[in-house]
Amino acid sequence: MRGAHFAGLKTGGQWAISFPPPEGMKFNAIVEGACFLSVDGVADPLHLRAGDCFLLTQPLRFALASDLTLERADAADVFRTATAGVARYGADEDVFLIGGAFSFTDEVKRLLEILPPVVVINGTSDSASVLQWALQRLAHELTCPMSGSSLMARNLGHMMLIQVLRLHAATARDSAVGWLFALTDSRINAVIEAIHAEPACRWTVAELAALAVVSRSTFAYHFRKKVGHSPLDYVTRWRIHLACRELRMRDGTISSIAQTLGYDSDSAFSSAFKRVMTFSPKEYRARQRGLADANPFD
């Protein structure tokens, strides 16, 4: 995660607000009241009630409103006058929403691109109890700020993001494809944990199948069906994910990073890196340092 920030909105009566496409992942939760959500490209609007949460995973314009046919105010204008992180808009204050925005590094964006455009969690479900606790604590930190409230809000926001992803993975595991959903399968989870623990290992499909305790052909088919990539392709992608972190956070040479991740030569490493990330390790490092220079407080 590159950064995160949170804000509250108190509104009521007849109101409608338009939000620009987020740069990262947008999170909203309804603490009190109810409203409608409309997202560009998503056919049907959603009715959200107290306790419900949603993640907008793609850069899509969206609107929140008591009535989606009303003229919409611009979110930038509404939040420009926010006090202590809470904006007020409309004639009443019978609706309270908490919003958060998460920005990620490039490799994490690729891991999360398997999610649908909008993920909605029903706040009344039994499995959402942890989410509800964090939501109430986050609402308290925003409306009654004390020393350390910004740090508390950030960590609570992270907890809520993880819990939403967990709940979505659990409900979509039978039909969705991707590493997040595959983790709910005990056989695939064991294999992924092994790959993550020893990324430099020269894994073979037979060795990974043995960890899943199934035949080689059954494992290869089941892994691709669940994860969306072949087992060895996943190994490569995980290595590149780790390489991105090293290139971004440390000053080690490209050769040393390649050797740590099990590559025999710089050329083999660079070729694999470019195939996954579309540019070379050297170009990636220069790009990330340029972003850091432009945003020193991210």
CATH top level assignment of the largest domain:
Mainly Beta
What is the helix content? Answer: 40-55%
The CATH superfamily of the largest domain bears the name Regulatory protein AraC
Annotated CATH topology of the largest domain: Jelly Rolls
The portion of residues forming beta strands comes to 15-25%
Tell me the domain tally: 2
CATH architecture annotation name of the largest domain: Sandwich
Output mean pLDDT.
87
Give the SSE string.
Answer: EEEEEEEEHEEHEHHHHHHHHHH
Largest sheet: 6 strands, mixed
Number of helices in the DSSP assignment = 12
Total strands: the figure is 11
How big is the Rg? 22 Å
Q: In which order are the strands of the major sheet placed? A: 9-1-10-3-6-11
Structural class: alpha+beta
Structure report:
Mean pLDDT is 87; it is low at 293-298. The protein has 2 domains: 3-172, Jelly Rolls (Sandwich), CATH 2.60.120.280; 179-294, Arc Repressor Mutant, subunit A. The strands form 2 sheets. The protein has a 6-stranded mixed β-sheet with strand order 9-1-10-3-6-11. A 5-stranded mixed β-sheet has the order 5-4-7-2-8. The chain is built from 12 helices and 11 strands. The radius of gyration is 22 Å and the shape is globular. By secondary structure, the protein is of the alpha+beta class. Helix 3 (129-143) packs antiparallel against helix 4 (149-172). It has helices at residues 75-80, 106-112, 129-143, 149-172, 179-182, 186-197, 205-212, 216-227, 231-249, 254-260, 266-277, 281-294, and strands at 3-12, 16-19, 25-32, 34-39, 46-49, 53-56, 62-65, 73-74, 86-90, 95-103, 118-121.
